[in-house]
């Protein structure tokens, strides 16, 4: 995405019981390129916080409620204070009102706060989205990368924070660099015991005949808001959808595959580890037309 | 540690070939509690950067060179531009000069910079250290926690960034919270195949008779500067030291054990997973007396 054009610092509500019609006095608009955070911020020192990225189409923020719910889910996994959902909804509405025509992205960030500080730090930004037309129409090449974990790690060891969307994304970024080194555009993480997980910043869906499959969101996957929305759309069209344990070997037998995320939307996969995969361009265009329509 | 009392923003040297006697014009002193970083900072958005923590005793920064070397090592693992070592040495010297008597901590942070920005962002801070007298003298209780990885993961999958000291420390912090939930003070990470690694923010050494053992720093361990320094000290005193693959079961047979880090120094372990361990207080006092002496 481009640099943010809008940013709002949020003083998080102290209690989720607080019933307020208007949280505007808890927001402070700031220059997104000006200094705003102190060096004591635990987000910068330890990636200690959580985030969400929301797509915006012509000023309409997509799927706000699932994103706010997922922020609360991540907060619970990370022992952060529960976000006040109405406060975040109002912050997103203010940010969305600042987005121009076309595609934008709103980011929500909730940090543990300043070291030894009294409260979390929170902010939202809005920025024009990058142009993902090529990814959506021509598709992307992906490679599989070992995530290092076995498929039981998330359930066994919740302190690994698998399933939380934390600010500690250095490994996700390193995986994307590794994919680029291998001549690909993106990566699909797999477990050490041969189970497909997700992409570093996207969900995966596979098409097998008229059935659409995504890796089951236990086992350390961050369930994708875009994937959930697309499954509902496919079901309404009469397709079968399924959450399943997907063996890595099944990647080779899928008829088609896509990476799904809130801003890039549906990117058809043209090759996995160098082996070509068919792309149904008309069908994919239909998926993206749906994803570009106003969704709540 | 307490809030930082001193902070210096650094404009990183563009090339490590640059031979400059004086980097002072690349430093800008800032108020450590004032806004200094923009919301576009990738350290805050993705924990995308690296750091070091250096102990300071009565104004003397300990082991500066090993820390600067390790910063460079982490930068290489994370595909960050190579730090100019002399520039960082000078920044540390300025920070050390601001530290009062007693124990302080200097942090070095090198972030990937602002999203789509031209260069990394870098800064150092200095803060009074927390009082670790109780940990050093009375000791700490630890629990073992699964790190989720097997002992081959680091070598097999370098994008997992094991061995780099990144800002993505959310899991390390979650492991400490889990340890506290279990009534302990700290944790020891172990692999899924039963090999001892390290603590979330410290190295482990074990004493078996007159031999001192630490987990070998391949396999995803961040080699501890304090551990290296202490091994040299022990060797000079005639003790045998060893880097070894330590099976988890060996924790039960060690005569003594310590967690070592740059600021807390040597914290004797009084119990592992609830099983008591002897502490030689006089010997431990000797280790900390060495670690509190000026070291380079």
UniProtKB/TrEMBL annotation, chains A, B:
Molecular function terms from GO: 4-amino-4-deoxychorismate lyase activity
InterPro entries, alphabetized: Aminotrans_IV, Aminotransferase-like, BCAT-like_C, BCAT-like_N, Class-IV_PLP-Dep_Aminotrnsfr
Pfam families in the record: Aminotran_4
Its EC number(s): 4.1.3.38
Any one cellular-component term (Gene Ontology): cytosol
Biological processes annotated in GO: carboxylic acid biosynthetic process
This protein's record includes keyword Acetylation: no
Keywords associated with the record: Lyase
EC top class named in words: lyase
UniProt family annotation: Belongs to the class-IV pyridoxal-phosphate-dependent aminotransferase family.
Full protein name: Aminodeoxychorismate lyase
Originating species: Microbacterium azadirachtae
Lineage of producing organism: Bacteria, Bacillati, Actinomycetota, Actinomycetes, Micrococcales
């Amino acid at each position: 995405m481009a640099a943010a054009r809008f940013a709002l610092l949020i003083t998080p509500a102290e209690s989720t019981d607080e019933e307020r019609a208007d949280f505007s006095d808890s927001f402070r608009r700031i220059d997104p390129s000006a200094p705003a955070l102190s060096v004591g911020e635990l987000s910068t020192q330890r990636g200690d916080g959580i985030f969400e990225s929301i797509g915006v189409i012509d000023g309409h923020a997509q799927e706000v409620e699932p994103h706010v719910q997922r922020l609360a889910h991540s907060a619970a996994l990370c022992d952060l204070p529960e976000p006040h959902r109405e406060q975040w909804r109002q912050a997103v509405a203010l940010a969305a009102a600042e987005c121009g025509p076309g595609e934008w992205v709103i980011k929500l960030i909730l940090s543990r706060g300043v070291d030894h500080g009294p409260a979390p730090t929170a902010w939202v930004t809005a920025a024009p989205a990058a142009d993902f037309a090529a990814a959506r129409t021509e598709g992307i090449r992906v490679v599989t990368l070992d995530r290092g974990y076995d498929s039981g790690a998330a359930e066994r060891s919740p302190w690994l924070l698998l399933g939380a969307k934390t600010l500690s994304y250095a490994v996700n970024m390193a995986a994307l660099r590794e994919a680029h080194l291998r001549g690909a555009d993106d990566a699909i993480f797999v477990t050490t015991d041969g189970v497909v997980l997700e992409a570093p910043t996207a969900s995966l869906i596979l098409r097998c005949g008229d059935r659409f499959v995504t890796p089951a969101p236990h086992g350390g996957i961050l369930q994708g808001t875009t994937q959930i929305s697309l499954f509902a759309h496919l079901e309404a069209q009469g397709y079968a959808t399924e959450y399943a344990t997907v063996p890595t070997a099944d990647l080779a037998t899928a008829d088609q595959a896509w990476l799904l995320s809130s801003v890039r939307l549906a990117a058809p996969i043209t090759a996995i580890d160098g082996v070509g995969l068919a792309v149904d361009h008309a069908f994919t265009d239909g998926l993206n037309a749906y994803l570009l329509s106003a969704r709540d």
